Amino acid sequence: MKEKKTISPLRRILVNCTAQANEYGACVAAKVPEVERDMCLKEFLALKTCMQNTLRGKV
Amino acid sequence: MRRFLFSQTSCSLLRRQRRPKDIPHRWFISSTSFSTAEYEDGDAFQNSPSKVKIFDRHLKRTQRQRDRAAWLLRPNDSFVHAVAENLVDRLEDCKKTFPTALCLGGSLQAVRQMLRGRGAIQKFIMMDTSYDMLKLCKSSQRDSDNENIETSYVVGDEEFLAIKESSVDLVISCLGLHWTNDLPGAMIQCKLALKPDGLFLAAILGGETLKELRIACTVAQMEREGGISPRVSPLAQVRDAGNLLTRAGFALPGVDVDEYVVRYNSALDLIEHLRAMGETNALLQRTNILKRETALATAAIYDSMFAAEDGTIPATFQVIYMTGWREHPSQQKSKRRGSATISFKDIQKQFGNGS
């Protein structure tokens, strides 16, 4: 059993990048029935940079 | 063989080789080999036995699935307990007692905890494909209050039931059968294991389960990768449950559905809960790769599409409860055609027309 609860990287990312995640989510949710590849690329790139910053910052 | 968190992979290899000798046949010897190929029951359209493989049963059993769930299992998982309670409650509706009971995979511990003497069970056989899960049940047996029940533990596969024919009064399966490749076959074997006038109780997850997760995964994958791969397993529909019971040959079938909406703080909590229950993906068709971006996208989309005002996300679990009895002359049957003694006209005269 794990004594210390290690926070998984994904969880840390979601906690740090809530704003970008919300924007990305809102972008996709608005266009839901017609989903195409990379249709919310801008928002996702913002989320991705935040994710990389989080991982680099902590690691 | 002591098993710890870090020596996972080597132990699973060992166990794979030892498996045929692993099954302790202490109480029951299988009289015939219950391969589903023999039970087509005159199905004229199928010449070959259905050996559809949808789930990777081996993966289900190993570290990443049931065994992991055995260590992660929360003793007070409210969802699993609610389902087990609901299922075991049905025993109270029967006047009959069930001295011998077989519990097939799924949430064994929850069933035993919720049992509390219902159905007057004296001998309890717990069966699971995962050795670790059984060890956990065995170790927690001392804490439970069911001391007068004789419990035995069998490591076995639901699709190859190693139980002697007509030997148990009751078969319970709580959230275990939706991972079988051949559900009708498994149910037929359960029926054969039952004594005449024996009861089969099962709770399986239905088609509506995790529909939010399914939608979020699909949308995220379409947006990020341009294609989709199955992430949620195919689950039985309610309308098929009745057919399954009659096909297996159960008399007096009964099906009812319950929908539980469980709230989580985030999509990651949902996935952790699924891991703890041993319900993570085991489709043969699955892609092993889940890119971090796609996972992130899924979590973000799940939040935005389905979040409630307080920030929690719902997840639907549709549970289908099935009950069936093995045939016995004492059960009521539908009357023969032409044996009616009163016509509807007489009834109408009695009760007045038009209402």
From TrEMBL, chain A:
<dbReference type="GO" id="GO:0005739">
    <property type="term" value="C:mitochondrion"/>
</dbReference>
<dbReference type="InterPro" id="IPR034595">
    <property type="entry name" value="NDUFAF8"/>
</dbReference>
<dbReference type="GO" id="GO:0032981">
    <property type="term" value="P:mitochondrial respiratory chain complex I assembly"/>
</dbReference>
<protein>
    <recommendedName>
        <fullName>IMS import disulfide relay-system CHCH-CHCH-like Cx9C domain-containing protein</fullName>
    </recommendedName>
</protein>
TrEMBL record, chain B:
<keyword id="KW-0489">Methyltransferase</keyword>
<dbReference type="InterPro" id="IPR029063">
    <property type="entry name" value="SAM-dependent_MTases_sf"/>
</dbReference>
<dbReference type="InterPro" id="IPR050602">
    <property type="entry name" value="Malonyl-ACP_OMT"/>
</dbReference>
<dbReference type="GO" id="GO:0008757">
    <property type="term" value="F:S-adenosylmethionine-dependent methyltransferase activity"/>
</dbReference>
<feature type="domain" description="Methyltransferase type 11">
    <location>
        <begin position="111"/>
        <end position="201"/>
    </location>
</feature>
<dbReference type="GO" id="GO:0032259">
    <property type="term" value="P:methylation"/>
</dbReference>
<protein>
    <recommendedName>
        <fullName>Methyltransferase type 11 domain-containing protein</fullName>
    </recommendedName>
</protein>
<dbReference type="InterPro" id="IPR013216">
    <property type="entry name" value="Methyltransf_11"/>
</dbReference>
<keyword id="KW-0808">Transferase</keyword>
<dbReference type="Pfam" id="PF08241">
    <property type="entry name" value="Methyltransf_11"/>
</dbReference>
<dbReference type="GO" id="GO:0005739">
    <property type="term" value="C:mitochondrion"/>
</dbReference>
<dbReference type="GO" id="GO:0032981">
    <property type="term" value="P:mitochondrial respiratory chain complex I assembly"/>
</dbReference>
